[in-house]
């Protein structure tokens, strides 16, 4: 399939976004969950930010977590990107 790699990347971006939407995953935890490297997760988060998703890092008691602004955890299955956002 000629577009298989692109499809895999899109699916991983969606999975990363789902993990971030829960507010419970750090970069290493997302990497472990998805079976990819920490740098891959970092690149995916950057790509999602470039697409307009309001992703920030937040210090929690046990470490850092990604947070998707405008959501309160897992209550949104498919977070929508901010309009006109540039990170």
From TrEMBL:
This is Bifunctional ligase/repressor BirA. It comes from Botrimarina mediterranea. It comes from the Bacteria. InterPro entries: Homeodomain-like_sf, HTH_11, WH-like_DNA-bd_sf. GO terms for molecular function: biotin--[biotin carboxyl-carrier protein] ligase activity. Keywords: Ligase. Residues 67-87 are annotated as: Disordered. Residues 12-61 form the Helix-turn-helix type domain.
